[in-house]
Amino acid sequence: MQSVDERNTSTSVFGNGFADVIGQWSWDETAARFGTFKAEDVKAVLSKAIRNRKQLSPEDFMVLISPAAEPFIEEMALLSRHFTQERFGKTISLYIPMYVSNACTNKCVYCGFNHDNPLTRTTLTMEQVEAECKAIRELGPFENLLIVSGEYPALCGVEYLEKTLRVCRPYFHNLTIEVMPLKQRDYERLVSSGLNGVVCFQETYNRKAYPKYHPRGMKSFYDWRLNGYDRMGRAGVHKIGMGVLIGLEDWRTDVTMMARHLRYLQKHYWRTRYSVNFPRMCPSESGFQPNVVISDKELAQLTFAFRIFDHDVDISYSTRESPEFRNSMMQLGITSMSAGSQTEPGGYASCPDALEQFEVTDHRSPAAVCKSIIDGGCDPVWKDWDQIFD
Predict the structure, then answer these.
(1) Which of 6-15, 153-162, 318-327 has the lowest mean pLDDT?
(2) Distance set, CA 171 to CA 97, 175, 314 (Å)
(3) Percentage of the chain surpassing pLDDT 70?
(4) Is the dihedral of CA 99, 102, 107, 111 positive or negative?
(5) Residue 93: helix, strand or coil by DSSP?
(6) Contacts for 246 with CB less than 8 Å, ≥ 6 apart
(7) 45-52 long-range contacts, Cβ below 8 Å, gap at least 24?
């Protein structure tokens, strides 16, 4: 694989992957199709889902998230609950994020970590990372840790991440990172150091609009980010998390592109597990206001549609969502949730006044979230990976 030169924006430098095939689908033509579906189309797709009991195509998925499917939301909820319980039982997996750095070279207009925000930056030392691990363990028996950082290679590159994984490994069985996209050999290096999963948000699949939100920094290279999922798959990452940020572009078109991307990845890297997330934008230090608003009912419809589309994918809700909404969706499609989240480096033990990436909406303690899961008739699961398999 060729090395990445930030001064070279040609597609070839970013390697092969989904960026080479996404052009077969027009963003504008995809967006226009949602107004063409009728009630008969929705009935046909739901009948297909029940009759064939096979995963649907992205085109079927489009029908289920279209306005034509809104009157069928109760039927979709029941079907989504059935497929969720059939595959996952009545379980909700719990995880917690640990932010290790808010330093970032990117200038994403919607993000609190924007390089131009004139606020103090913090990158945790290994001693502080360990203090965070100990503080998190006191919050609850978490085993799924999500390690998050801004994109600043000089401060939190692969060597820093490797050291972080080795510090965290004695405290947690399952380690996932949400950091800058890496080279394949770097993912391989981190897998050998205890990495289990990688989460990466494309933010929006709209190639034309993408530079508007990501004007500077390595994140401005659309193809490099999009092909990152292929590098993860080739590196043997156990679980890949995908997501779009609801609030930038038309949400129906964005999640359709993500559904197409998921099917592509499942075909090419079938040994890998996958998760999806579609967070709604929350306030951040950037002051950016969402261009698109999705209602609770529409987000529920999207969740049901994705579960009917794919029975095996893990659907996650973060603390961006309210306690009431997360509680109501527990048995209807989602399978994992974060709890007790702090979105600033050192938020659990070291640096409580550091810059946050965004404000959380669900401020409940992990114990309170766990109780709500039990009260809702589900079982909280604190881990799905054991040392015996390492």
Answers:
(1) 6-15
(2) 14, 10, 24
(3) 89
(4) positive
(5) strand
(6) 254, 278, 279, 280, 281, 290, 292, 294, 299
(7) 46/72, 46/75, 46/76, 46/79, 46/308, 49/79, 49/308, 50/79
Helix (H), strand (E) at residue 92: strand 91-101
**Alpha carbon 136 to chain centroid distance?**
21
Residues 311, 87 contacting (CB under 8 angstroms): yes
- What is d(CA 105, CA 124) in angstroms, rounded to the nearest whole number? 17
Question: Model confidence over 77-93: pLDDT tens digits?
Answer: 999 999 999 999 999 99
Longest dimension (CA), the chain: 60
- Phi, psi of 66, rounded to the nearest 5 degrees: -80, 160
Question: Closest Cα to residue 240, out of 220, 211, 270?
Answer: 270
Alpha carbon 163 to its chain centroid, in Å, reads 24
Measured CA to CA, the distance from residue 278 to residue 264 in angstroms comes to 19
Phi-psi region of 228 (alpha: psi -120 to 50; beta: other; left: phi over 0): alpha
The residue behind tokens 């999806």 is 276
Cα–Cα distance measured from residue 360 to residue 356, given in angstroms and rounded to the nearest whole number: 10
Looking at the predicted structure, is the pLDDT value of residue 203 above 80?
Answer: yes
How many C-alpha atoms does 73 have within 13 Å on its Cβ side? 13
Alpha-helical segments (H) within the chain: 27-33, 39-52, 58-64, 73-88, 126-139, 153-156, 158-168, 184-191, 210-213, 222-226, 228-234, 251-268, 296-309, 323-329, 366-375
